[in-house]
Write a structure and sequence with these properties.
Blueprint: H1 2-10, H2 12-28, H3 39-47, H4 56-68, H5 74-82, H6 90-98, H7 100-113, H8 127-137, H9 142-150, E1 154-155, H10 163-166, H11 172-184, H12 204-211, E2 217-220, H13 246-262, H14 269-278, E3 285-288, H15 326-335, H16 340-355, H17 375-387, H18 392-400, E4 425-426, H19 429-439, H20 498-501, H21 519-527, H22 529-537, H23 544-552, H24 555-567, H25 573-582, H26 592-603, H27 606-609, E5 610-611
Antiparallel strand pairs: 1-3, 2-3, 4-5
Helix pairs in contact: 2-17, 4-6, 7-8, 9-15, 11-12, 16-17, 16-18, 21-22, 23-24, 24-26
């Protein structure tokens, strides 16, 4: 009897997940019925019973900022006004997910997680971003996306997924650290030099055993003659010869000595330069060499010098055939359906981004002492994610169509429960720049410098949806003079740019963007170059707002539309009274100065600067 009870206890979440998955699948096909309860809400109300929905306009702006990284356009606000009050925002969510802006904004987030840098030696600008954003745009399954990176090989031009490794020089020890954190939420870096002090039974040898999965590769961005000794020979860089089996070491050393004696040592400087030029790679290239391994270092207190046997993050030793691609073996283990931890780690990241709270923190450290909040919801989302082939767009749509996502903000300063209430968050650097561009007259910004360099709708009947993206994705490019979206700015963002001022990270660590408020940010919005230029140009004779006034012949209506552009609402009664007191001209006379003052004030308002 006790055995049965233990089994029930251990698998209770699995049982519940299966039950709710059945309801979830039914929900997907019955969403047009507005009275259908979202399965996620049933679980969420158990965790937070008093959750209430917010105003639809606030939800709409939140949805646009979360999915596309930009506030809605005036046209979209007007479309919202035509939507029946009893109809959900689902059609807008589907539209946003299919637009290029989704792939651009979330591509920036994912490449920040992967520490991508737009530029590098022998690397086309923005190559990795194009690959990541393109994968999101196509709605590529997450496990397929991760597998492609883990088993990639070739040039960055033909296979940009190789930049996952090239980012760290294809160093297996560095790769092991980030793979553990990114895809398994396990911080193993401490074991690189000594046995791990916080993970029980994880030794330094275990760290090397994990790194051994990624030791059969190396990259070159200079001179390299891959087939110097024939296609069947294990030719590797000199610094990696030590990681070959002893017999192969001896063979390659003898061949290198013979080649140097018969060629290099006899050549003139000119001949050597010709050889180097002839065999210089056009693009940075990741090479795969099956005989390479990883030797455990010699130390005074532990034996070493042997080629380490690969071991998975769960402690199990891999059973491999000689010459087998160990990266593929690891990728297969990682993305196996039985490995729910792999899925839950990315679900937690997506959930945190959309909901403002996490199932567990830190996002890259799920250890034996971690307390999981809302575990029943996490298990349910895992079941849904798995049933939908690990497609991130389906997961995101499922979350944002719940009432839990559209929950209200708190009206009580002493009650800031992030589970019950949505917590306002300052616009991140991309959301801010994109929104400033959207409200500008030109829809482009030509100069994003702030610091001195010395400081440096008819989709509701389609169930389930095809969320494959439509349209063309923008990406970072060299020497752009004008920017229509923050995604076109290289990363890490230049130090002097508005993106850097507002926290766009250096891409040194996983998702190292910063969201703390600084005095510099406040000053930048009040009198910085970007906002200053926007305000200065606002209302010029060829501007959109001037053309709008020429049609309306009313400052009150023009100001009302300005509120719509920035905040998605009309001025309140109090704001109308204040504006009336500031007017010095008749309503039918265009007042550029007044418009610029209101424009500047709205940009600097808390309402504009936050996702509510």
């Amino acid at each position: 009897m006790r055995l049965v009870l233990n089994l029930v206890r251990d698998f209770r979440y699995l049982f519940l997940s299966i039950v709710f998955l059945i309801f979830a699948v039914g929900y997907v096909f019955s969403r047009p019925k507005q009275n259908v309860v979202h399965p996620l809400d049933s679980l969420y109300l158990k965790l937070s019973p008093n959750t209430a929905k917010t105003d639809r306009r606030i939800s709409f702006r939140r949805l646009s900022l979360h999915l596309r990284g930009v506030i809605p356009s005036v046209t979209e606000w007007k479309e919202l006004d035509t939507l029946p009050q009893d109809q959900s925002l689902e059609s807008f969510a589907v539209s946003f997910l299919k637009q290029p802006e989704f792939a651009e904004y979330w591509g920036t987030k994912v490449t920040s997680m992967l520490r991508d840098k737009s530029k590098g030696r022998k690397i086309p600008t923005g190559a990795f971003f194009q690959y990541v954003a393109g994968s999101l745009h196509k709605n590529k399954p997450y496990d397929q996306f991760v597998k492609e990176m883990l088993i990639s090989t070739g040039t960055v031009k033909e296979s940009p997924a190789t930049l996952f490794y090239i980012r760290d020089g294809a160093d297996p020890l560095q790769t092991a650290e980030y793979v553990g954190r990114l895809f398994y939420a396990k911080r193993v870096a401490c074991a690189r030099c000594h046995d791990h002090p916080y993970i029980s039974d994880f030794t330094r040898r275990d760290y090397y055993a994990l790194a051994a999965f990624f030791s059969q590769q190396f990259f070159r961005d200079g001179t390299w003659e891959a087939d110097r000794y024939g296609k069947s020979f294990s030719y590797v860089p000199r610094e990696l010869e030590i990681h070959l089996p002893m017999e192969d070491q001896k063979i390659i050393q003898d061949k290198n000595n013979e080649w140097n004696r018969d060629n290099w040592n006899k050549w003139t400087d000119e001949q050597r330069k010709d050889y180097q030029k002839k065999h210089e790679v056009e693009y940075a290239t990741l090479y795969y060499q099956p005989k390479l391994g990883l030797r455990f270092p010699h130390t005074d207190d532990a034996p070493g010098g042997d080629l380490v046997r690969p071991k998975f993050l769960d402690g199990k030793e891999a059973k491999l055939k000689p010459g087998e691609d160990r990266r593929k073996a690891f990728a297969d283990w990682l993305t196996n359906k039985s490995n729910d931890r792999f899925r839950k780690v990315i679900i937690n990241r997506v959930w945190t981004e959309l909901m403002g709270w996490s199932f567990f923190t830190p996002l890259d450290d799920w250890n034996e002492d971690t307390v999981v909040t809302g575990e029943e919801i996490l298990n349910h989302l895992d079941s849904y994610f798995l049933a939908n082939n690990l497609k991130l767009k389906e997961l995101i749509l499922y979350i944002v169509t719940s009432n839990a996502y559209h929950r209200s903000l708190t009206s009580n300063g002493s009650d800031q429960d992030p589970i019950r209430y949505f917590s306002p968050k300052r616009l991140d650097s991309d959301q801010l720049l994109n929104s400033l561009i959207r409200i500008s007259d030109s829809q482009k910004i030509s100069n994003i410098r702030e610091r001195n360099l010395s400081w440096f709708t008819g989709l509701m009947d389609q169930k389930p949806y095809d969320l494959t993206g439509t349209g063309t994705i923008r990406y970072p490019e060299d020497n752009l003079k004008e920017f229509s979206n923050a995604v076109e700015v290289e990363r890490p963002a230049p130090y002097h740019s508005i993106l850097s001022v507002f926290g766009s990270g250096p891409r040194v660590d996983i998702s190292d963007d910063v969201d703390e408020l600084t005095i510099e940010q406040m000053l930048t919005l009040m009198n910085g170059r970007v906002v200053g230029k926007l305000v200065w140009d606002f209302g010029n004779k060829d501007s959109l707002v001037k053309q709008e006034f020429d049609q309306l012949k009313s400052m009150d209506l023009t100001i009302g539309n300005l509120y719509y552009r920035l905040l998605g609402r009309s001025p309140s009664i109090g704001e109308k009274e204040k504006i009336k007191s500031l007017k010095t001209k008749a309503d039918t006379v265009f007042d550029k100065d007044l418009l610029q003052d209101i424009f500047w004030a709205l940009i600097n308002s808390q309402e504009f600067q936050h996702t509510n």
